[in-house]
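[scheduler] slot 2 assigned
[scheduler] job type: sequence-to-structure, two independent chains
[scheduler] chain ordering preserved from manifest
[runner] begin chain α
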Amino acid sequence: PLLLAGGKSTRMGSPKHLLPMPDGRPLYQHQLDLLARACPDAPTIYISLAQDSPLDRFLQSLTPSQDPPSPPTSPRPTTAPPAPASAPNPNPNKPSIALLRDARPNPAARSAGPAAGLLAAFRARPAATWLVLAVDYPLLTPGMLRALCAAYAPPVTCLRNADGFCEPLVAVWGPAALGELRRRVE
C-alpha cells in the first residue's frame, strides 16, 4: 500500500495531509489506518511526501537524517535504490510505516504532482505492484480497497467513481504502468 500525501494543497490553504479529522488525528493517520485495515497482511505501508511537505512529530520520526541521492537518469537503476526511512514497529500485528520522499522527475517542472509520489514508489521498489490511495479520499472503506485489489488486471486498475470516471489516485498500479508513467514524465 502507498499513501500519496505530498501535494501542495493550494486549494485547501494548508497542508491537507495534516488536516484534523473529527477524532483529532491528522488526515494522513486516518488514511494509514484505512490502508492497514484494507491490507492486513502488508508488512509495510508507504507514505509519499514532497521534499518540502510539512511534517508532524510522527512524520519527522520517519525522516532520514540526510536526503537520499538523486534518482538515476538511466531507464534502469545501476545500483539498489536507498531504503525508505521507516519507523520501528512496536506492534507486530500492525504494518510498519515507511516514508518515501518525492523528487521532481523533471527538474525544470514547476510541480510534479501525484506522479512524483508514484515514481518515488517505483524507484524504491521497481518490481512491486502498488495499491495507491491519495490522502484526500477519506470516505473510502477497507472493503472498497479490497475489491479494487481483487479486480486488479495489469497494468493498472482504477476505482470508477459514481459518475463513471476512473480515479487514477485510487488504483492498483503495476510495474509496467509505472514504467510507462516514468517514460512519459521524463
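[runner] end chain α
[runner] begin chain β
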Amino acid sequence: PFHRLLEAQLQDQRREHEEEVEALKNQVDAMKEELEKQQQAFLQTLQLSPEAQVEFGLQQEITRLTNENLDLKELLEKLEKNEKKLKKQLKIYMKKVQDFEASQAAVPAEGRRHERNMQAAVQRKEKDFQGMLEYYKEDEPLLIRNLIT
C-alpha cells in the first residue's frame, strides 16, 4: 500500500511537471510570435521614409497611451468602488458612535467630565503626529468617536 501511494504521488508530480512544461512551451511560442511581429514591424519601419517613420512612431505611441489610459480607467473604477464601500462603512461606524454616545448619556456628570479631560488630552497629543495610525482592534470605537468629535 505504501509503495502504491508513493507511486501515485510520483505520477501526480510527473503530470504536474508535464503540464508546467507545456504551459512554458506555449508561453515561449507566444513570445517568439510577438518577437517576430516586432522584428517585421521594425524592418518595415526601416524601409519607410523619415516622415513615415515619425508617423509610425507616433501611431505606436498613441496605441501605447490608449492602452495605458484604459488601464488607468480600470484602476479608477476599482478605487471609486472601494471609496463607496469605505463610505458605507463610515456611516455604519458613525451610527455605532451615535448609539454609544446615547448610551453614555446615562453616565454621571463627573464621569463625563473626566472623559472630556481625557479626550482633550488625546486631541492635543494627536496634533503632534501626522501619517499612519496604529491601534488595537478593541480601541476602534473610542478612536472613531474621538476622530468624529
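[runner] end chain β
[qc] chain β: The CA atoms of residues 6 and 12 lie 10 Å apart.
[scheduler] slot 2 released
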